[in-house]
Design a protein that fits this description.
Blueprint: H1 2-31, H2 43-48, H3 51-83, H4 88-96, H5 103-113, H6 119-126, H7 138-162, H8 166-174, H9 179-190, H10 192-207, H11 211-215, H12 224-233, H13 238-258
Helix pairs in contact: 1-13, 3-7, 3-10, 7-10, 8-9, 12-13
Length: 272
């Protein structure tokens, strides 16, 4: 009876996965083999491996790497400080709340902030640097992307740090390790799963960004997400757009596999 009840509860989950995960992937895969005239073709995959799309793929991974790196460099120290503060849950909530705001509204806000007559350039004028072109640059694209993804990186790292047994840190210091050595050999290795989870939450969506590239970077930055949008909405070449989406899905699966959590023994250094 117990097994039958569990199987019954699995039906809605299986239905959801089949309808909203498996079916869309099959549909994308189907369209990737269709040409502009609707006939079966392999030309979309031949075009994808051309130099243009290869450079586009490298560019997308490079920008996703930069966004993830800068987000991690900001988020880890922030999460570390948060765990040592009073009312840390309240401060964490204040960091997470901006992620509830629609991303389009935040992007439009940055159009004003980074604009020629925005507060950022006004500050540069005050300190004597003068107004500079911030919008429609690589810097603005990475800057805004990092801001948007910071809460998604902080949360898993904070959870990992908050669950860290302080006895390990105390033992390290009692044995004469410096603060840096304690961080490098104790704190960071024991919270690496939080770092991996945060990197997944940032790197994978960063590969397919297109709204920020449109509005903030002014198409000066072209990613796989931008290319998919153009093929579906501008050129109406759904086959090529689906082909790019297929490789993007494959890349995401590989990244999730490589960065998947693995439990390691604390003393033996071997897989538990």
């Amino acid at each position: 009876m117990g097994n039958k009840s569990r199987n019954l509860f699995l039906i809605p989950y299986v239905f959801w996965i089949a309808l909203f995960v498996v079916a869309p992937i099959i549909l994308v895969l189907f369209y990737s083999f269709r040409g502009l005239d609707g006939s079966f073709t392999l030309s979309n995959y031949q075009h994808f491996f051309s130099s243009t799309y290869f450079q586009l793929t490298l560019s997308s991974f490079w920008y996703a790497f930069l966004i993830t790196l800068f987000t991690l460099l900001i988020s880890y120290p922030t999460a570390l400080v948060l765990t040592k503060m009073r009312h840390k849950q309240l401060w964490l909530l204040l960091i997470i709340v901006p992620s509830w705001i629609n991303i389009l509204l935040k992007v439009y806000a940055f159009l004003g902030i980074l604009g020629t007559y925005g507060p950022f350039n006004a500050f540069l004028d005050v300190i004597g640097i003068g107004a500079v072109q911030l919008l429609f640059t690589d810097f603005s694209f990475v800057f805004v992307s990092v801001y948007i993804f910071i809460p998604f990186m902080i949360l898993p790292i904070f959870n990992a740090l908050d669950k860290l047994n302080p006895a390990f840190v105390d033992a390290s210091r009692d044995l004469g390790a410096s603060s840096f050595e304690t961080f490098r050999k104790v704190i960071f290795p024991l919270t690496i799963n939080g770092v991996k989870a945060g990197c997944q939450l940032v790197f994978i969506p960063a590969l397919s960004l297109f709204m920020i590239t449109r509005l903030i970077a002014g198409n000066q930055v072209i990613t796989l997400g931008t290319a998919i949008e153009q093929h579906f909405l501008v050129t109406q070449d759904w086959g090529m757009g689906s082909t790019i989406a297929v490789f993007l899905i494959i890349a995401m699966i590989i990244i999730m596999f490589l960065s998947g959590n693995r439990k390691w023994g604390l003393t033996s250094g071997k897989k538990a």
